[in-house]
Design brief:
Two copies of one chain form a homodimer. Chain A has 306 residues and is α/β, with parallel strands linked by helices. Chain A has twelve helices and nine strands. Chains A and B meet through helix 8, helix 9, helix 10 and helix 12 of A and helix 8, helix 9, helix 10 and helix 12 of B.
Chain lengths: 306, 306
Amino acid sequence: MEFIEELRFLKEQMKFKEKVEVPRGISNIVIAGMGGSGIAAMIFQEFYSKLPVTWANDYRAPDFVSESTLFIAISYSGNTEETLSATNQAIRKKAHVVTISAGGKLQGIGTQHIAIPRTDMQPRSASGYMLIPILAGFGLFTELEADGAYKFLADLDADNAKCLAHAKAIYERSAIPVIYGSHPYKGVAYRWKTQFNENSKVLGYSNSFPELNHNDTMAIAQTYLKDKFYFMAFESGLERITKRIDVTQSITGSRFATIKPKGSSDIERMFYLLHYGDYVSYHLGRLRGVDPTDVSLIEQLKKNIA
Amino acid sequence: MEFIEELRFLKEQMKFKEKVEVPRGISNIVIAGMGGSGIAAMIFQEFYSKLPVTWANDYRAPDFVSESTLFIAISYSGNTEETLSATNQAIRKKAHVVTISAGGKLQGIGTQHIAIPRTDMQPRSASGYMLIPILAGFGLFTELEADGAYKFLADLDADNAKCLAHAKAIYERSAIPVIYGSHPYKGVAYRWKTQFNENSKVLGYSNSFPELNHNDTMAIAQTYLKDKFYFMAFESGLERITKRIDVTQSITGSRFATIKPKGSSDIERMFYLLHYGDYVSYHLGRLRGVDPTDVSLIEQLKKNIA
C-alpha cells in the first residue's frame, strides 16, 4: 500500500467498533505507549478528566498502579520494549490491563485485547485504531461523531491544497516547523511534530497556548534564525486563546499560519486537525525528496540496542 | 540584585524549611502552575508516583478534582490568571488547596499558604522555593539532601567554565539548543528549554529518551539546517539509556554534548543539572548581548490580553 493510501485510510478507521471495557471501581487510568502510540494518551487526557489519566512513555509503570487502575497498553507491533516492560509491571501490580496491538507479545497478556485489523501499515497511520476504542469505551465517540469525522476526513482527502501550501512555504525557506496547539488540541500539536520528524525528516517542536506565553514568547522576537521558523497555530475558537494568538503575533512582530479545524464537535475537529498535519508533513517530505515511509533508523536503533 | 546573584541564590533556597502538609486520605495530586512554576510539577511527577500527579497548565482544574485531591497552586506573583482560574475551580470542588507564592491573590485562598520569602527575584529564579516544599512534604527532600545539594550548587557557582563552553559552542554557530533528558531528569530538560527562551532569547526545545527514539531520531540525520542544532543529553547513568544515547549518535551521524550531573542522590543531581542549565542559558544571553532578566514582552502580553 502506498503511503498516501495509508493516510487516506484514516477515515475508514472511523468505522472501527471495538471499545475498551471499562471495569467498575477504577480510580485512575494509565496509558502506555511510545511515539505515535503515546499520542492516543495525550489526546485522551484532553477529552476525559473524570479520573486522572497518566501517560507512561518509559520502561516503568507508575508506583500507584494497583487493582483499581485501568492500564491501557498500545503498540502497533505489540513488541515495543518500553511498553512491554511497563505492562508486565502493571500486570504484577494486578491492574486491569487492556492491550491494543496488531499482534506481538502484548496480545493476550491482559484482560482484554483489541486487535488492530491491518498489519501492513506504518504504526503512525493507525491512530484511529488506537484512539477510537479508548474514546468509545468512555462514551466519547458516538456513531454520529464517527459519521461526522468520516465526512470531514474525506473532504481533506479530496482537497488538501492548503496543506500543500503550508508544506511549500516551509520547504521554500527550509524552515523549522513550530506547532502551537491549545486545549483540546495540545496532543494533536505534538502529533504534528512527530509526523514532521518521521514523514518529512525535519526537526521541529510543539508547544501550546497559554503555556508558551510563559517561555517561547520571550524568544520569538529576538531569537537568531528567526526567519527559519515557520509558526503554525490551531484556532480553537476559544476567545481567550484567539486573543493570545493575536497578541503574541503583534508583540513579537511575527506571523503565525493559523489553522481552523472543520467539524461539528471537538472530537471531529481533533481528527480533522490530526489529518491536516498528516498531509502537511507528507507533502513536505515529498517536496524534499525524502521517503515519508522510511523509518529504517528507528529499526536499526532497535537492533543495535537489543 | 544582579541576575547572576539571583542564580547563585539557588543554593540558599536549599535551606528553605517549609513543607506542604499532606492530608490523610487523598487519592490524587494536581499541581497548577505556568512556565517556571509549572516545572515543579513536571519534576515532582518524576520523583513521586505513589499517587497520580497531574500538571494543570491551563485555565481549568481537571474534572476529577474533589475533596480527595491535594491541589497545589504555584505562582511567584500569586496573580497568574490561568493558575488563579484553575485554583478557584478546585476550591469550588472542595479540594484541599495549598498555595505557594510571594503574595498576590493566591495567598490565603487555600487551606495552607507557603510564602516565598523574597519578592525581588525573577519568578524562574525561585525554583527551590517552589519545589522543595512539595518534595519535603512527601519526605523526598531530607536535611542530608539539602546539605548535599547546597554543596554541589556552590561548586557550580565557583566554577561553571563548562557551562560557558557550551554557551560559546552554541553562540559561535548561532545554534538552536535541543536538550534530551531522561528519567528522572525529563522535567529538568524542559526547564533548560524555558531558560534558553527567557535568559538567552533563543528558541529551542526538549525531548527525552526513550521517547525521542520514536520521532526525533528519524529527523536528526536528514533534517535541513542540521549544523544549526546543538544537541545536549543528560547522562542518567542508567545503562539502557546510555546505550540509547550512544546508538542514537552513531546511527544519525551526529554528536551530542553529554552532561554528567554531580550529586549523591537523584534529587541532588536533579538540582545540579537544573542549575547547570541556568548557567548555560545565562552565558548564552550574555554572549548574545541580550538582557537575561528582560521579560518585558511577557509583561506586555499580560497587559494586552487583560
